[in-house]
Amino acid sequence: MKYNLSLSPNAEVDLLESALWYESRQIGLGEKFTKKVEAYFSRIQNNPLHYPLKNGNLREAYIQKFPFIIIYEIVGNEIIVFAVFNTHQNPTKKP
């Protein structure tokens, strides 16, 4: 089954703000971060059940080399990404 992946408005903001922050630290790092996240989006689309359930129906994919997790839910043949969460943030902010 082919899954469609969509980002919530909050996830889009998370991704953009994080990429801009990395880019401000080192030229090209924001692009590397974005490519890494997009690679994980592809992995999630190809095998969404691979990543563990953490909170109800929400799953979490930990991104290697960057302190982020992708929080998503599978609804039918749709994958909804709710957050690209920085694990260095206050854990109470985690969706």
What is the CATH class designation? Alpha Beta
Structural class: alpha+beta
Radius of gyration computed on alpha carbons: 13 Å
Count of discrete domains:
1
- Beta content comes to 25-35%
Order of helices and strands: EHHEEEE
Quaternary state of this entry equals single chain
Q: How many E strands? A: 5
Shape: globular
CATH architecture descriptor: 2-Layer Sandwich
Q: For the record, what is the CATH homologous superfamily label?
A: RelE-like
C-alpha end-to-end distance: 27 Å
In the CATH hierarchy, the third-tier topology is known as: YaeB-like fold
pLDDT under 50 segments (min length 5)? none
Count, helices: 2
Mean pLDDT: 91
- Secondary structure: helix percent: 25-40%
Q: How are the strands ordered across the major sheet? A: 1-5-4-3-2
Largest sheet, strands/sense/barrel:
5 strands, mixed
Would you mind describing this structure in some detail?
The chain has 95 residues and is α+β, with helices and mostly antiparallel strands. The protein has one domain: RelE-like (YaeB-like fold). Helix content is 37%, strand content 32%. It is built from two helices and five strands; from the N terminus they run E-H-H-E-E-E-E. A five-stranded mixed β-sheet has the order 1-5-4-3-2. Strand 3 and strand 4 form a beta hairpin. Helix 1 runs antiparallel to helix 2. The termini are far apart.
